[in-house]
UniProtKB/TrEMBL annotation:
GO biological process: DNA repair; translesion synthesis
Bias-annotated ranges (Polar residues): 573-586
Molecular function per GO: damaged DNA binding; DNA-directed DNA polymerase activity
Pfam families (UniProt xref): IMS (PF00817), IMS_C (PF11799)
UniProt superkingdom: Eukaryota
Region (Disordered), start-end ranges: 438-467, 509-531, 571-592
Gene source species: Galleria mellonella
InterPro entries named among the record's database cross-references: DNA/RNA_pol_sf (IPR043502), DNA_pol_Y-fam_lit_finger_sf (IPR036775), DNA_pol_Y-fam_little_finger (IPR017961), Rev_trsase/Diguanyl_cyclase (IPR043128), UmuC (IPR001126)
Residues annotated as domain UmuC: 19-229
Residue ranges with Low complexity bias: 438-455
Protein name, per record: DNA polymerase iota
Length: 603
């Protein structure tokens, strides 16, 4: 924890970090204005259902505000141009592009919702300071209450450099993507986020540590402190702690009576503008999902239509993400007519990765694959709903919740290949999906985004708590021949993709599985994974003398000798490589990964 003192600790490097928070101005509206420049000069509102979720600054001049009812907005501004913003695809794509661009500074970037990112520029600032005269460094943009006092830890100079970097970053976002942005610069995330909107739009504000406590006391409600959610606010208010000043002044011992000791300290620190949470590099989300809410649906065929529409859209997201899903979750919100309440229920099962095919580096699902997914979805639905009785749903949701993990078999060769590939493609890693809550949930209590709306097709926002491993498939997608230093690494990937004989074998297996896709009694049998089936195909289908028939000999010969030897041993002795000749009873059980899996096609 940082010191609870609000004054600068002269002589100590008390405020070592430099954090930038960037927020896109009227995000959805800017996406629409970039698409159609005629909208730039008119007041514009982005509508979802009957709500204006955002508006351009032209409309804000008329008094149109975020989360206003459309009817009220039109009263305030009769010439308001409305654009439907229920399809989030282009907003998400723009959000990903911004995140990608921010990666180019090679600093940790944490994505927060659609239009916000934290960037920890501490190291970059240190590097810059090695090449400049400290006296020549000036602030860029606004400074919160410039006092002229210098903190001896050197944070003022570092924040000046950070403010120059923030300006550079904002300029690049504008030049390359056309978006104007706001930025907050501070020695921690809390302050950077909170000062960001002080000079909206298209500007930036820096706050120095000595003003933290005073700035925090300008917040009228504890609810405006990011990471203080509704429940904590209620508890605080019930004990007459309403404003941030109240929280600053209440003795810690009193807080500890109402909260855990850690929480009490955290609340106290936050009220003083202190926050030591790190900027965590955002990785791929844990799940990718969509939901659709409505008044009520009580007919199975209608539910099926809703799921079908959701699935189409979800498959676009999955394609953009690049990973192969292996688990599917169905969520329903049931209305309890008797209690006038509703509650959510979910069911999930594993799905076969072979439903997804990689064509020209892009993930696709054939019509047959989509039918299979719909069959699985409706099976899960049947488990959630007793169709012999009437039902009333107000929401359906679909999410892919697990993705094919990077394969790390026992083989040293596999590890050698995987490590190398991850290094080669690391620059291509992307975060393709939306993220919101973080370990410190800044979005929850942001004054600008605190209202949540139950809108159609609302995003299921996965938590980016830990940077996720990027899967083998996602990495492989990024490889171009130029990027691959050793031909052998590419060839293994090619083998996996191009082995026509294996495709045929695998297709046959798929057809036989089709027949078994009828509802099964035991939930354990929801596991539709066919990885082990395919393994069996290899073991039985291959010519195990030297090189099985499905392997391209030219490619095999291009592998290093030691790798060829190891493969030959595996092919000769499938049992020792975890490739047993399974009996039908054991075929559904997962087998250890082996190098041979890299020769398995995805069809
Ligand atoms: N959004 C939403 N529902 C809300 C709030 C916001 O769908 N209750 C969407 C629309 C916004 C986007 O999220 O464009 C980003 O939210 P911000 O709070 O950052 O608002 P804007 O970017 O639109 O405006 P500002 O210029 O104030 O940042
Ligand atoms: Mg914004
Ligand atoms: Mg925002």
């Amino acid at each position: 924890m940082e010191s609870s003192s609000s004054t600068c600790n002269y002589g100590d490097n008390e405020h070592p970090r430099s954090i930038i928070h960037i927020d896109i101005d009227c995000f959805y509206a800017q996406v629409e204005m970039l698409r159609n420049p005629e909208l730039r000069t008119v007041p514009l509102g982005i509508q979802q259902k009957n709500i204006i979720v955002t508006s351009n600054y032209e409309a804000r001049n008329y008094g149109v505000q975020k989360c206003m009812l459309v009817s009220d907005a039109l009263k305030t501004c009769p010439n308001l141009k409305l654009v439907n913003g229920e399809d989030l695809h282009d907003y998400r794509a723009a959000s990903n592009k911004i995140f990608e661009l921010l990666q180019t500074w090679k600093c940790p970037v944490e994505k927060l919702g659609m239009d916000e990112n934290f960037i920890d520029v501490t190291k970059l600032v240190e590097e810059k300071l090695k090449c400049v005269h400290i006296e020549s460094v000036t602030h860029s943009g606004h400074i919160y209450n410039e006092s002229g006092i210098e903190c001896l830890c050197g944070c003022h100079t570092r924040l000046k450099v950070a403010s120059q970097l923030a300006n550079e970053i904002r300029q690049k976002i504008y030049d390359e993507l056309g978006f104007t942005t706001c930025a907050g610069i501070a020695h921690n995330k809390l302050l950077a986020k909170l000062v960001c909107p002080l000079h909206k739009p298209n500007n930036q504000t820096t706050i120095c540590p000595e003003h933290a406590t005073e700035f925090m006391s300008t917040l009228q409600s504890v609810r405006f402190i990011p990471s203080i959610g509704l429940k904590t606010t209620e508890t605080l208010i019930s004990h007459k702690i309403i404003s941030v000043t109240d929280l600053q002044q209440v003795p810690l011992d009193i807080l500890k009576k109402h909260f855990s000791s850690d929480m009490a300290v955290r609340l106290k620190n936050l009220s003083l503008g202190e926050d030591n949470t790190p900027v965590k590099q955002t990785g791929k989300p844990q799940s990718i999902g969509l939901e659709d809410s409505f008044k009520t649906v009580s007919v199975k065929s209608e539910v099926e239509d809703k799921f079908c529409a959701l699935l189409q859209r979800l498959l676009i997201l999955v394609r953009e993400d690049g990973r192969i899903p292996v688990s599917l979750r169905v969520t329903l919100r049931k209305k309890d007519a008797k209690r006038l309440s509703s509650h959510r229920e979910s069911r999930q099962c594993q799905i076969s990765p072979s439903i997804f095919i990689i064509t020209n580096g892009s993930l696709t699902v054939t019509n047959v694959g989509q039918q299979k997914l719909m069959t699985i979805i409706m099976r899960l639905f049947n488990k959630l709903i007793d169709l012999s009785k009437p039902f009333h749903l107000t929401l359906v949701g679909l999410a892919f919740t697990k993705f094919q993990e990077r394969m790390t078999g026992r083989s040293s060769i596999v590890n050698y290949l995987m490590n190398d590939i991850s290094v080669q493609s690391v620059l291509n890693l992307q975060n393709d999906c939306d993220t919101s809550a973080s370990s410190m949930d800044y979005s929850a209590a942001s004054p600008s985004s605190s209202t949540t709306t139950d809108l159609s097709d609302a995003e299921v926002e996965p938590s980016p708590k830990k940077p996720k491993k990027v899967t083998w498939i996602a990495k492989r997608r990024c490889l171009s021949k130029e990027e691959v230093a050793s031909p052998s690494k590419l060839k293994v990937g090619e083998l996996r993709l191009n082995s026509k004989e294996l495709e045929k074998v695998s297709e046959l297996r798929l057809n036989s599985r089709d027949r078994s896709l009828t509802p099964r009694a035991s939930p354990a049998k929801d596991n539709l994974s066919d990885a082990s089936d395919t393994m069996k195909d290899i073991a039985e289908g291959g010519n195990c003398d030297d090189c099985p028939s499905y392997v391209d000999k030219e490619v095999f010969n291009a592998l290093p000798d030691e790798m060829q030897q190891e493969l030959k041993v595996m092919w000769k002795n499938p049992t020792s490589s975890g490739m047993t000749r399974s009996s039908p009873r054991t075929m559904n059980k997962a087998k250890p990964n082996t190098l041979l899996k890299y020769f398995v096609p995805h069809k």
